[in-house]
Design brief:
Layout (H helix, E strand, L loop, with lengths): L1 E2 L2 E9 L5 H14 L3 E10 L21 H14 L3 E4 L5 H11 L2 E4 H6 L5 E2 L20
Parallel strand pairs: 2-3, 2-4, 4-5
Antiparallel strand pairs: 1-6
InterPro entries: GTPase_HflX_N
Protein name: 50S ribosomal subunit-associated GTPase HflX
Pfam family, one: GTP-bdg_N
Length: 143
């Protein structure tokens, strides 16, 4: 297990969400209770501008969830502070987590990962390998 000591918090919030600071405060408190230290927070707002209202529920980027500018800010802060992980308030797909980790060069966690931690904020050192289902029939295509 790898212990996470320093983190950056990130959240994408719709303009309809008025309590986004409270959500970040709650996540900050959970990380702190597990022995982590929050060094920075980044908020990406969606739908604040007139053009963004129709897209409130969708991510800004399919790959990175947040916009390019915010992505660069978080990456620069991660490098500057040399944090162990970036923690998102939002749920992330496996695809997003992989791309964000590659871009930041750090672990990327979510609120759910923090909630699963018990006495310290930890993650497995090696990802679990999926074992193939040996009972599945081979995929045969007709020509």
């Amino acid at each position: 297990m790898t212990t996470i000591r320093t983190v950056i918090l990130v959240g994408l919030f719709s303009a309809k969400v008025r309590d986004y600071q409270n959500q970040l405060d709650t996540l900050d408190a959970e990380v702190t209770a597990l022995g982590g230290r929050v060094l920075a927070r980044f908020v990406q707002r969606r739908g604040v501008s007139a053009g963004g209202v129709r897209l409130l529920a969708s991510p800004l980027s399919r790959r990175f969830l947040i916009g390019r500018g915010k992505l660069e800010q978080v990456a620069a802060a991660g490098k500057s502070f040399d944090v162990d992980a970036v923690v998102f308030v939002n749920e992330l797909t496996t695809y997003q987590r992989r791309w964000l980790s590659a871009r930041f060069g750090r672990l990327v966690l979510t609120l759910a990962d923090v909630a699963r931690s018990t006495s310290a904020l930890t993650v497995p050192t090696q990802p679990r390998r999926l074992t193939p289902d040996r009972t599945a029939k081979p995929n045969r295509h007709r020509r």
